[in-house]
Amino acid sequence: MTDATALAAALGRALALFSVHATVTVAEDHVLVPNRTAEAILSDIARVDGAGSAHRVRSLLHSRRGEDVQLTVPDAAHLVLALEDGHRQKRRNEQIDRGQIPGPMSSAEVMRLARRHPGLFRR
What we know:
By secondary structure, the protein is mostly helical. The chain has helices at residues 3-17, 35-46, 54-61, 73-97, 107-116; strands spanning 25-26, 30-33, 69-72.
């Protein structure tokens, strides 16, 4: 299994975290992401609050209208990491919305939790 093949499989798993069905194709030294998949993941990652990886995902998946996205092996690896980070942040935000404390929190997350669940901090 080549690096591109392994990365295509990892990219497929990372895209599945966002419930985006993807058929990622491997070419000689790059990975091909269908345009429809790129558009779907871009709309999903845009809704994740506080995902610092959203900018990286947008820059990697940017393409001209109607064309598939070609990623080199290093770019595909960066995309996998950025998607996993975005999913982790999405899951963390969902926990905060439910009133759960997901571990150490930033001040912005504490404020979000306090606004959504004001009774949580009362004595």
